[in-house]
Design brief:
There is one protein chain. The protein has helices at 10-24, 35-51, 66-78, 94-101, 123-132, 141-155, 161-172, 174-177, 193-200, and strands at 57-61, 83-89, 135-139, 182-184. The protein has 201 residues and is of the alpha/beta class. A 4-stranded parallel β-sheet has the order 3-2-1-4, sandwiched between helices. Helix 3 (66-78) links the parallel strand 1 (57-61) and strand 2. Helix 6 (141-155) crosses helix 7.
Length: 201
């Protein structure tokens, strides 16, 4: 099958994909409103707690919200007192604003962090987050860039800005998190050489 490039951003491409699925009868797997996807990404938190059962806080990057929703369901089913915190770029705050307002909202999308680059909130993850997410933090683009560099320098892990977002949030919340065992879900190592050069500049 040929690769199709469409639209100015992720949400344009997603909406076009949905239209093609309706037109041709394809099975469309939504990037957020898909229970199997949420269950699948929840296994990261499950495996984390199997190996580190004493974790107090899990910080998860949020684009559409499936990762954070999965962390809430899996994490709190094993450890109800587990605190789950979501983090999103202030340059693409649709999920954050929707979580605060308890309604689905659309917002601007100006982040370089591809994994956080959504203009709209997704219903299924948001319903889970409204009920189970303990806190939600916005970080700016400079904080994301610094977190990428800190990950390289401190852990030798190369992550994209979305994957470094939990570290940026942990640094912002350092006083509140002091004395707690904190786990960061570093999802995504898809940083391009150009993106890395931009961070290093």
């Amino acid at each position: 099958m040929a690769r199709i490039v469409h639209g100015r951003d992720f949400d344009d491409a997603r909406e076009h994909c949905e239209a093609l699925a309706r037109e041709h009868g394809y099975r469309y797997i939504h990037s957020g409103n898909e229970p199997h996807l949420i269950a699948g990404v929840g296994t990261a938190t499950l495996e984390l707690l199997e190996t580190q059962p004493e974790v107090d806080v899990v910080i998860v990057p949020v684009g559409g919200g499936s990762g954070a929703a999965g962390a809430c369901i899996a994490g709190k089913s094993i450890r109800p007192e587990l605190e789950v915190i979501g983090v999103q770029s202030s340059a693409a705050p649709a999920a954050y604003r929707s979580w605060q307002a308890r309604q689905l909202l659309e917002d601007r999308m100006e982040t370089r962090a591809e994994g956080l680059a959504t203009r709209v909130a997704f219903e299924l993850p948001q319903r889970i987050l409204w009920e189970h997410l303990d806190d939600f933090v916005l970080v700016d683009e400079d904080e994301l860039g610094r977190a990428v560099l800190l990950m390289i320098e401190g852990t030798r892990n190369l992550v994209e800005p979305a994957g470094a977002a939990p570290l940026a949030a942990a640094l912002r919340l350092r006083d509140r998190l002091a004395g707690k065992k904190v786990a960061l879900i570093l999802s995504g190592g898809n940083i391009s050489p150009d993106q890395l050069r931009e961070v290093l500049a």
